[in-house]
Amino acid sequence: MLLKRVAVWGALALLLPLVPAQAADWQVDPAKSHLTFTGTQAGETFQGRFTQWTATIAFDPAHPADGHAEVVIDTASAQTGDAQKDEALPQSDWFNAKAYPQARFVAKSFRQTAPGHFEAVGSLTIKGISHDVVLPFTLTLNGNQAAVAGKLAIDRTAYHVGEGAWSATTFVGGTVGLDIALIATRR
User: Fold this and answer.
1) Residue 10: is its pLDDT beyond 90?
2) Domains of the chain by range and CATH?
3) Fewest CB atoms less than 10 Å from the CB: which of 45, 55, 94, 121?
4) CA nearest 55: which of 74, 76, 75, 72?
5) Separation of alpha carbons 145 and 50, rounded Å
6) DSSP 1-28
């Protein structure tokens, strides 16, 4: 009987490495985090931010491939500090927030590229149009706290952001920079 128990425990110990790692859940602190964007208009750079968004993140830096994340952005919350831009962005030519109230980034997995450097592999959906993207980011851990910083450049016209007269990139540049800075706590 004792030999049988030892054999069972031995077999379980051998199988343990085959059990997939469980990614840790993280709670993002919205007061210390931000999603911003940078564009150009008439050759001048402008910046903006999204004030309403949520993030669900499951990630273990020791097992990045097992992680996943979803960021949901309220498109009507885009603000630049310029009244004319802020009024235009939710309209049909830009985000069309009535028809498409949310943009979404879904990371299906992560991969480490160097110590403290990772990539989130997933898709970005804006105005119902999805494209595969790879978001490079840095991760700094301090106990149960994580600081994440990442940048992604997208072609706004690929998502039909800026339609009609705004679809040309001569006045409003086609490339938009997306910047993330997140502070999160491991749950």
Assistant:
1) no
2) 21-186 (2.40.128.110)
3) 45
4) 72
5) 23
6) -HHHHHHHHHHHHHHGGGSPPPPPEEEE
